[in-house]
UniProtKB/TrEMBL annotation:
GO terms for biological process: division septum assembly. InterPro entries: G_ENGB_dom (IPR030393), GTP-bd (IPR006073), GTP-bd_ribosome_bio_YsxC (IPR019987), P-loop_NTPase (IPR027417). CDD domains: YihA_EngB. The gene is engB. It comes from Mariniplasma anaerobium. This is Probable GTP-binding protein EngB. One of its GO terms (molecular function) is metal ion binding. Its cofactor is Mg(2+). The keyword Ribonucleoprotein does not apply.
Amino acid sequence: MIKEAMYIKSLTDLKDKPDVLPQILLLGRSNVGKSSFINSLTNRKNLARVSKTPGKTLLLNFYLINQNFYLVDAPGYGYARRSKSLKDDFIIMIEKFLLDNQDLLFVCLLIDFKVGPTKDDLNTYQFLRQLGREVIVVATKKDKIPKTKQFKQEKLIKGMLSNPEIFIAISNVTKENIDKVETLFLSRIDEVIHP
Ligand SMILES: Nc1nc2c(ncn2[C@@H]2O[C@H](COP(=O)(O)OP(=O)(O)OP(=O)(O)O)[C@@H](O)[C@H]2O)c(=O)[nH]1
Ligand SMILES: [Mg+2]
C-alpha cells in the first residue's frame, strides 16, 4: 500500500535531486492526466496540482512515496502554445534525465485511452525503447469509453505500440485499476530495495 506521499521539491537539473532513492518517471502529453494519476495512486485529492493552464512550468516534481522511492512528475509534452525555445528546453531536460540517471527504475508513459497514442506519444515511446529504458504504459480516462467498446480500444492501442510488455488502462475518476498499478510499482521498488 502507498501509505505516505509527500511533495519534496521541483527541479530542472538532476544535480539538485534530493537523494539517491529509486525513481519512477511519469511522462505523457499535456492534459493526459499525470497529476490526477499521482493523486489517485497516493489517494490524495491535491498532492499534485491538476492544472487548468497546462504545460507552463518546466519542472520535474519529486514526490517521496513510503519514504523509499520517488514519483517524478514531468511537464506534459506536445503543448502547442509553448514557445519553440521552451520546447527545446523541455526535450533537453528530459533527455538528460533519461540518459544520465542511475536512479531511474523505469518510465511510466501515460496515454489517453480515448484519444489513443498521438504522434508525440509514439515518438516518445520509440525514443524510450531506443534508449533501452523499460516503459510501463498506463492509459488514462478509461471511463470515457463505453464498457462494450473498451476491449476493442485496448487492442487497437496495444497494436499501435507493437504490444508493450506492460499495459494497464485506468481511470482517475472511477479509480479502476489504480490498485493494479500500485501493486506493480511497489513490487518493482521492493525488488531493488530488497534484491
Ligand atoms: N474522465 C476522466 N478525466 C480525467 C482523468 N484523468 C484526468 N482527467 C481530467 O483531465 C484533465 C487534465 O488532468 P491533469 O491531471 O491536470 O493532466 P496532466 O497530465 O497533469 O496535465 P499537465 O500538468 O498540463 O501536463 C483534468 O480536467 C482532469 O480532471 C480520467 O481518468 N478520466
Ligand atoms: Mg500535471
